Amino acid sequence: MYVFLVVNVYRANCHTAKVALIEAARENTEVIRLMLRLLHDLKQISLKEFVSCNAMLESVSKQLSAWHRSRINKSDSFLACRREPEQQQWSVEQPGC
Asked: Shortest CA distance to 68 belongs to which of 13, 28, 22?
């Protein structure tokens, strides 16, 4: 599963449509987190190994979240620049009585 995470990060670096790939990588981090928890619960890894792996995974997860926010903000600002100017609405005000 870790391989899929690395592949998605690599693809996101190379493609112009990064958001979907970053989301896939973020989903991979959650699957890895669940697998780590399962490994610990089944006593396949020690608490020390679990904590160490979880800390590294948390770091990757935070980086992906920041990258995702950055890409979303860039796409929002790009779309705002590309919108057609809004037509101004003129209204006739009635004089007060």
From this structure: 22
Q: Which amino acid is at 94?
A: Q
Kindly list the domain boundaries of the chain, sorted by start residue.
2-70
pLDDT tens digit at each of 97 positions of the chain: 668 888 888 888 888 888 998 999 999 999 999 999 999 999 999 999 999 999 999 999 999 999 999 988 876 555 554 554 454 454 455 555 4
Q: Is 85 exposed, middle or buried (0-12, 13-18, 19+ CB in 10 A)?
A: exposed
Terminal Cα distance for the chain, rounded: 74
- For residues 60 and 54, what is the distance between their CA atoms, to the nearest angstrom? 10
